[in-house]
Design goal:
The protein is an alpha+beta fold. It has four helices and seven strands. It has helices spanning 13-23, 30-34, 83-97, 112-120; strands at 4-7, 42-48, 54-63, 66-74, 102-108, 124-133, 138-146. A seven-stranded mixed sheet has the order 1-2-3-4-5-7-6.
Length: 148
């Protein structure tokens, strides 16, 4: 599928919020999503179809040379089309340009598809967070991509 990857903008937040609600048992609020918009400590990018509809997004906060991915989501109807891969690839290019040493994220231990996506992109498991998620209660796998 052909997608454009762009910085997320205020006018995209309604669509991003809808994807968030479809993908997560405890979705972020519109205000929480708004706080991720690009600034000196955030990268927040969206994948858009040719008509400008948001198909997925990823956000990352960074401090010094450390990057922390907040959310990665692809609309259920747009999954398995390379959108998540394109978003992660673009984010890692931005992380390299920012000279980050690593980027890390948490993923539900039962989310085999997401774990496979991250491993394919070069992330490696580095730890586990016990009972990190609610609804349902589940451990998180901590995964990191090392740039240096």
């Amino acid at each position: 599928m052909s997608v454009n990857i762009e910085d997320a903008r205020e006018e995209m937040l309604g669509q991003i919020e809808e994807i968030e609600k479809l993908c997560f048992s405890v979705p972020w609020t519109l205000e929480q999503l708004r706080s991720q918009l690009k600034d000196p400590q955030h990268e927040f990018i969206a994948a858009l179809d040719p008509e400008g509809r948001v198909l997925g997004y990823v956000g990352m906060m960074y401090v010094l040379d450390e990057g922390y991915i907040s959310n990665v989501a692809v609309a259920p109807a747009a999954r398995r089309q390379g959108i998540g891969q394109a978003l992660i690839r673009e984010l890692m290019e931005r992380a390299a340009a920012l000279k980050l040493a690593f980027v890390t994220l948490e993923v539900r231990c039962g989310n085999a598809a997401a774990i496979a996506l991250y491993e394919k992109q070069g992330f490696v498991p580095v730890g586990r967070r016990k009972n990190y998620y609610d609804f349902p209660r589940e451990d998180a796998i901590l995964m990191t991509y090392f740039l240096k």
